[in-house]
Amino acid sequence: MKIGFIGLGNMGAPMAANLAAAGHEVTGFDMADVSVEGIRMAGSAAEAATGADVVITMLPNGQILRKVADEVIPAMSKGAALVDCSTVDVDSARAVAEKAEAAGLLSVDAPVSGGIGGAAGGTLTFMAGGSEDAFDKAKPLFDIMGQKAVHCGEAGAGQAAKICNNMILGATMIVTCEAFALADKLGLDRQKMFDVVSTSSGYSWSMNAYCPAPGVGPQSPADNDYKPGFAADLMLKDLRLSQQAAESADADTPMGALAQALYARFVEEEDGAGRDFSAMLPRFETRGRDKG
Ligand code: NAD
């Protein structure tokens, strides 16, 4: 296929490289001066999109996605597919899908999980929203860039799945970290705590697969001085998107709201910026009870 790829950052560059390595003809564009192996660089987003069967975007946020979509949609041929893999707000995903469909294009919102390692290794999970036809057109590309693609429903459903998952993840990581810090103060050995919880009703992905305590459980960013991994800044972004969506859908999400507030404080007022999101554990370790 002829593929236009817009946004060749930490995630986009390795994803595009994997498509090129699989034999697709990829033309890329990024605002920054980047080069990616196997990819021809275009001078604009519209140029990268011209004549493409599929245009993939991997951009920082919904506002930028809307702007780029306005540039590429008029350049695309009818029947081509616009596939956005960025994590953006549900409203932007739906607005872009509406514009694309009005122009006779297929459209998919397909945010990913799996991080930079998953992008490089071609093991991402795609959560997709859009019509059956649009999903079918993008599926062979998802199969190259990832190991799993779930068609979640109509436009916006992929973004909805992503932010609901990450709202659970953020809140679960916080409570796992605070439980370790409480265990410390109660004199309970961390390894014993892991042995019990990882096989009891408190188990979770945060505890079992990504344990925030160094030297306990599987290898995780905790064993690498909390270098990301999944940065606290990105968790904060996703939690904000979850609360923005909850606001516009009138959903009551008190735990999600608290998780957002704690990550905001951690990243913006404390030392969380640039650290893995599991670095909440050393944060709690050094604190006493919040009397405020
Ligand atoms: P990044 O900042 O490394 O890459 C974004 C790229 O978009 C940059 O290279 C930037 O120059 C480019 N860009 C910005 N505006 C542009 C424009 N108008 N036209 C063309 N290019 C433009 O970010 P990333 O880590 O690659 O993340 C991309 C998306 O994936 C984000 O929405 C993020 O939330 C999501 N995501 C990231 C991770 C992760 O671990 N990094 C995991 C899952 C999802």
Describe the SSE topology.
Elements: E1 2-6, H1 12-21, E2 25-29, E3 40-41, H2 45-49, E4 54-57, H3 62-72, E5 81-84, H4 90-102, E6 106-109, E7 112-113, H5 115-121, E8 124-130, H6 132-145, E9 146-153, H7 157-185, H8 190-197, H9 205-208, H10 232-249, H11 254-268, H12 280-285
Parallel strand pairs: 1-2, 1-4, 2-3, 4-5, 5-6, 8-9
Antiparallel strand pairs: 6-8, 7-8
The structure holds nicotinamide-adenine-dinucleotide.
What descriptors fit this protein?
single chain; alpha/beta; nine-stranded mixed β-sheet; 9 strands; 48% helix; binds nicotinamide-adenine-dinucleotide
Structure description:
The protein is built from 12 helices and 9 strands. It has 292 residues and is of the alpha/beta class. Strands 1, 2, 3, 4, 5, 6, 7, 8 and 9 form a 9-stranded mixed beta sheet that branches. The structure holds nicotinamide-adenine-dinucleotide (NAD). Nicotinamide-adenine-dinucleotide (NAD) is lined by residues 6-12, 29-32, 45, 58-60, 64, 67-68, 86-87, 112, 115-116, 230, 234, 237.
